[in-house]
Amino acid sequence: MPEAEPRTTESFCDAAWARTAALLDAIHGHPFNTALGEGTLSRDRFVFYLVQDGRYLAAYAKTLATAAARATDPADAMFFAQSAHTALAVERALHTGYLDGFGMGAEDVAAVATSPTCLAYASYLQATALTAPFPVLVAAVLPCFWVYQDVGTALLERTAGLDDHPYRTWISTYSDPAFAASVTQVRRIADRLAATADPETRRSMTEAFCRATEYEWMFWDSAWRLETWPTGQWLTTAG
Ligand SMILES: Cc1ncc(CN)c(N)n1
């Protein structure tokens, strides 16, 4: 009798998480996140991050709304529609609250150019939403949930107490049990879709998960470097 093919019982999420383990370590150890957790992150770096993340979240919410429109399972559609709402109502409001507190109004924010990394990540998600198979789209948005929850929870554990912490609202938002529950839900959706996906789609799901996790690292790194367009010097200012 021929030997049975070895079958992997590892879920898509567990395999994808294991594949990005070194990258996740780099995210946790990035100077931006270390300083964020210690409360020593400079105001200009945090403001840069907030402004870019506001742009990112607007695109991310549209990506999630597209996922809701494309989902065939009504429960999945509800989850993604709700998550699109949360990205704008909770996360973006968190950023606006900080920016208001720093005296930055809508006009100041509008005057900041979208960074190369923010534009690349946002464009990648929106292109994936419109052109990739639905399971690949789910894999692409998964790190946006999961990595932030992982970082938020780790920062909370590393922090002695949040009472006087300058970034406590940020840390509380991403370490909140409600946010963790949304991670569990999107992981379940990804695992269910991967379980019936053909090998090529599953490979594309893994690629999308890895690419989005790379963009997560790059996003924090761009804020740390206060990234600008290297070509900006050759453009005249708008008249
Ligand atoms: C870049 C980025 N990635 C993820 C998240 C969490 N939704 C966020 N606010 N910003």
From TrEMBL:
Domain annotation Thiaminase-2/PQQC: ranges: 23-225
Hydrolase keyword on record: yes
Enzyme class: hydrolase
The protein's annotated pathway: Cofactor biosynthesis; thiamine diphosphate biosynthesis
Catalysed reactions, semicolon-separated: thiamine + H2O = 5-(2-hydroxyethyl)-4-methylthiazole + 4-amino-5-hydroxymethyl-2-methylpyrimidine + H(+); 4-amino-5-aminomethyl-2-methylpyrimidine + H2O = 4-amino-5-hydroxymethyl-2-methylpyrimidine + NH4(+)
UniProt keyword annotation of Kinase present: no
GO MF annotations in UniProt: thiaminase activity
Function, as annotated: Catalyzes an amino-pyrimidine hydrolysis reaction at the C5' of the pyrimidine moiety of thiamine compounds, a reaction that is part of a thiamine salvage pathway.
Family according to the record: Belongs to the TenA family.
Annotated protein name in UniProt: Aminopyrimidine aminohydrolase
Source organism (scientific name): Nonomuraea montanisoli
Gene for this chain: tenA
